[in-house]
């Protein structure tokens, strides 16, 4: 059989390196150990990329998938962290990027009735590496309720509230549980969310939110204060977006703080 041409390795003369090239929107099984020492099985949407020097025409896309499948039928946190270095070696690259985004479920009991149900959150593992260091960022996407302090102050009856999403990204000195970050965010809002609420629970949640009004600005500040005080968090970025109930727009705020990433 005649040798097949390797077009990707042909020379490119445009003198333009590519910062990231690879594959995205792959779905792959993922196994995560939760704070209760149980193992949660979920499915991650995966992005894999490397840099490409200016003189190469293309990269070898199949090698990204080969690295992913080399870890068997299910990924874990430990082999996700190691994957950028494997990509660099496999594709002869100087930098590599791995991102895993997946749904994460918690069993939560309603505050009064104790009715139990699963609530889903978004979690992202992002790992970037070069020849000197590996940088890991953990991000959680947390749904919450906020009640408007201004609406409460000026209204004779009630106050408008809305559901929102808080996105908290962190770097850390020692391992941190996903649940710790979820609780940090939920305790900063007017109320946390539940999947099952009976009438006594609905009354409790409504009144709790009314007693704890927060602007979107309050929400990110509340999270930032707790992130700064956390002994393991070395850097954070918190964003909050409220899906406004009386406006045709969303309210948004962001705070970033902490030290720059260090080599690991």
UniProtKB/TrEMBL annotation:
Keywords: Hydrolase. The record marks 148 as: May be catalytically important. Pathway: Cofactor biosynthesis; 7,8-dihydroneopterin triphosphate biosynthesis; 7,8-dihydroneopterin triphosphate from GTP: step 1/1. One of its GO terms (molecular function) is GTP cyclohydrolase I activity. It catalyses: GTP + H2O = 7,8-dihydroneopterin 3'-triphosphate + formate + H(+). It is an enzyme of class 3 (hydrolase). Its EC number is 3.5.4.16. One of its GO terms (biological process) is tetrahydrofolate biosynthetic process. InterPro entries: GTP_cyclohydrolase_FolE2, GTP_cyclohydrolase_FolE2/MptA. Pfam families: GCHY-1. Converts GTP to 7,8-dihydroneopterin triphosphate. Belongs to the GTP cyclohydrolase IV family. This is GTP cyclohydrolase FolE2. It comes from Prosthecobacter vanneervenii.
């Amino acid at each position: 059989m005649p040798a097949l041409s390797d077009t990707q390795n042909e020379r490119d003369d445009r003198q333009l390196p590519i910062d990231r090239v690879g594959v995205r929107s792959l779905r792959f099984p993922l196994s995560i150990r939760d704070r209760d020492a149980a193992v949660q099985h979920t499915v991650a949407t995966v992005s894999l990329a490397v840099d490409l020097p200016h003189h190469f025409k293309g990269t070898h896309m199949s090698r990204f998938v080969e690295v992913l499948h080399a870890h068997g039928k299910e990924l874990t946190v430990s082999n996700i962290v190691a994957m950028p270095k494997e990509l660099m070696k496999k594709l002869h690259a100087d930098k590599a990027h791995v991102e895993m985004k997946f749904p994460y479920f918690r069993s939560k009991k309603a505050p009064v009735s104790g009715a139990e149900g699963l609530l889903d959150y978004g979690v992202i593992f992002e790992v970037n590496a070069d020849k000197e260091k590996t940088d890991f960022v953990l991000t959680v996407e947390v749904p919450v309720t906020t009640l408007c302090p201004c609406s409460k102050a000026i209204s004779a009856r009630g106050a408008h509230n809305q559901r929102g999403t808080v996105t908290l990204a962190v770097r850390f000195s020692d391992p941190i549980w996903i649940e710790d970050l979820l609780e940090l965010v939920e305790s900063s809002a007017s109320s946390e969310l539940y999947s099952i609420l009976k009438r006594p629970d609905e009354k409790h949640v409504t009144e709790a939110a009314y007693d704890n009004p927060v602007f979107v600005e309050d929400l990110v500040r509340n999270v930032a204060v707790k992130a700064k005080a956390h002994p393991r968090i070395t850097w954070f970025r918190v964003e909050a977006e409220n899906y406004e109930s009386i406006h045709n727009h969303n309210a948004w705020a962001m705070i970033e703080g902490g030290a720059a990433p260090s080599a690991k």
